């Protein structure tokens, strides 16, 4: 995957903000009052939806985000502002319009299946005054952003005239505008950088039944010409994403298991905007968005994907390279925090691993079995020399790290230069610390930090020293 871990672009989202309420429960009987299910609600969760879900996705990826929108003078608006403040998104550019009701979609889910949804909202176009306030604010602040995302849910914020004005101002400031479109008339999005319609939406907008390569080419070309886009794009569900910028190509999907497609379009828009704002090309950006969408459709409800989840997911698809699993101290600190927040049990071990042999592999496999994620602290070349003598290591730290990172049992490798891994263990704070069985009855570095210490017996007759001696004798 393209390296986005150290990136934090600044993006501006404009569109229809809403709240998604999920009522989670179980259903074991039918109501005696009517032929409907009786759901026993056991918990509930409230998250940002619509343009808010785009914001949530961008924040999860590490972007700096601001939002311009119109909300109502209602309790839902107060709740929405609280959700934005919780993820540290400023609400200073939200415009309150009297008499308007901010959208709130409530869903009842029983046994991981959506039973019903009911909405409260205003869907009429915002006033001319609100449109003018949005445009004036946009003109004042646009220069400070790396890109603009328009999230149109057809709830009245992105009117035809306002949308065209926003795109024109953005183009004058050389800012890419990405749009998740709504409705049948795409002329309102003319001159945007790209749109992200799905196949059904593109078919309806172009009046072309997309059923094969020929009709896809016709529709995607028509969108590019009629909307004057830099890049024409159509998402094709399980078939991937098609793009056309003078040449038509399709990037295949990478989703393994689909639980819920709610909000997948928001993830595509956010991840494309994030990658393009980091100045990556459209093909790399589409591949990245495919991975992000693959993560979120494996969750239930409006979901987000962190960069670490995307890297982990890519690895599970065998699409990542070994060097992507070699981390610095700062990277592993952020990564372990994210993993723990997702309920993962972290296992840590360390060693020189100079000449890798079956004993090493078996030891690491057992270590991994104690938790979800195995992080390996690898002695640097200097550290190995200090421990083993001037003739060691045989292999450089770079080579040793790359080989270890390729093992199925090892999730991440971190090279440390000290004589002991204590400082690294302080950073990782693992749940489980693993050492060899020869440490029985001895003090183990870092056991005061880890929750638990486990000792693993080595495979008899397997060691780097023995391997070196055998090679020397054969010479």
Question: What does this protein structure show overall?
Answer:
With 475 residues, this protein is α/β, with parallel strands linked by helices. It has two domains: 10-16 and 49-91 and 121-320, UDP-N-acetylmuramoyl-L-alanine:D-glutamate ligase (3-Layer(aba) Sandwich); 323-474, Rossmann fold. The chain has helices at residues 51-61, 75-86, 128-141, 160-172, 199-206, 213-226, 264-277, 282-296, 307-316, 329-341, 358-368, 381-388, 397-405, 422-428, 464-474, and strands at residues 10-15, 17-30, 37-50, 64-72, 94-97, 103-110, 113-120, 147-151, 177-180, 194-195, 232-235, 241-244, 248-251, 326-327, 346-351, 373-379, 412-416, 432-436, 452-456. The protein has a six-stranded parallel sheet, with helices on both faces. Helix 1 packs across helix 7 (264-277), helix 3 packs parallel to helix 4 and helix 8 (282-296) packs across helix 9 (307-316). The mean pLDDT is 90.
What are the salient characteristics of this protein?
475 residues; UDP-N-acetylmuramoyl-L-alanine:D-glutamate ligase; 24% strand
Strand line-up in the sheet with most strands: 5-4-1-8-9-10
Number of domains: 2
**Average residue-wise pLDDT:** 90
User: What's the total count of β strands?
Assistant: 19
Question: What sort of overall outline do the alpha carbons produce when their principal axes are compared?
Answer: elongated
In CATH terms, what is the fold-level topology of the largest domain? UDP-N-acetylmuramoyl-L-alanine:D-glutamate ligase
- N-C termini distance: 43 Å
Task: Give the helix/strand class.
Answer: alpha/beta
How big a fraction of the residues is strand? 15-25%
What is the helical fraction, as a range of percent? Answer: 25-40%
Low-pLDDT stretches are none
Radius of gyration: 27 Å
Treating each run of at least 4 consecutive H or I residues as one helix, how many helices?
15
CATH architecture of the largest domain: 3-Layer(aba) Sandwich
């Amino acid at each position: 995957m393209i390296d986005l871990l150290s990136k934090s672009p600044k993006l501006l989202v404009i569109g229809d903000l809403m709240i998604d309420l999920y009522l989670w429960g179980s259903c074991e009987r039918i109501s005696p009052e009517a032929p409907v299910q009786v759901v026993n609600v056991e918990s509930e969760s409230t998250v940002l939806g619509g343009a808010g879900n785009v914001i949530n996705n961008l924040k999860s990826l590490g972007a700096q985000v601001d939002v311009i929108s119109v909300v109502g003078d209602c309790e839902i608006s107060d709740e929405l502002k609280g959700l934005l403040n919780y993820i540290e998104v400023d609400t200073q550019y939200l415009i309150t319009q009297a008499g308007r009701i901010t959208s709130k979609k409530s869903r009842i889910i029983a046994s991981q299946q959506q039973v019903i949804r009911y909405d409260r909202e205003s869907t009429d176009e915002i006033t001319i005054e609100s449109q003018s306030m949005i445009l004036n604010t946009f003109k004042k602040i646009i220069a400070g952003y790396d890109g603009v995302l328009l999230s149109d849910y057809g709830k009245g914020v992105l009117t035809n005239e306002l949308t065209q004005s926003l795109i024109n101002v953005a183009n004058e400031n050389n800012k890419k505008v990405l749009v998740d479109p709504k409705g049948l008339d795409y002329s309102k999005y003319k001159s945007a950088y790209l749109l992200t319609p799905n196949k059904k939406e593109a078919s309806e907008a172009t009046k072309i039944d997309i059923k094969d390569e020929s009709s896809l080419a016709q529709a995607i070309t028509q969108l590019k010409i009629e909307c004057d886009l830099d890049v024409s794009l159509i998402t094709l569900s399980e078939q991937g994403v098609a793009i056309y910028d003078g040449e038509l190509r399709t990037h295949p999907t990478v989703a393994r298991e689909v639980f819920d497609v709610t909000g997948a379009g928001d993830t595509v828009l956010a991840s494309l905007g994030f990658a393009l704002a980091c100045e990556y090309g459209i093909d790399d950006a589409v591949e990245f968005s495919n991975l992000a969408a693959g993560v979120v459709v494996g969750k239930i409800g409006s979901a987000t994907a962190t960069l670490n989840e995307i890297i982990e997911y890519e690895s599970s698809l065998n699409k990542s390279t070994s060097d992507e699993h070699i981390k610095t101290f700062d990277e592993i600190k952020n990564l372990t925090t994210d993993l723990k927040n997702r309920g993962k049990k972290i296992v840590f071990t360390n060693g020189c691993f100079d000449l890798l042999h079956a004993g090493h592999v078996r030891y690491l496999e057992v270590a991994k079995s104690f938790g979800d994620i195995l992080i390996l602290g690898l002695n640097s070349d200097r550290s190995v020399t200090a421990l083993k003598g001037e003739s060691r290591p045989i292999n450089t730290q770079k080579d040793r790290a790359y080989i270890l990172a390729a093992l199925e049992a090892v999730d991440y490798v971190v090279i440390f230069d000290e004589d002991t891994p204590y400082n690294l263990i302080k950073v990782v704070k693992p749940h489980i610390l693993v050492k060899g069985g020869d440490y029985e009855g001895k003090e183990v570095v870092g056991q005061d930090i880890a929750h638990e210490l486990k000792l693993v017996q080595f495979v008899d007759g397997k060691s780097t020293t023995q391997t070196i001696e055998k090679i020397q004798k054969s010479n």
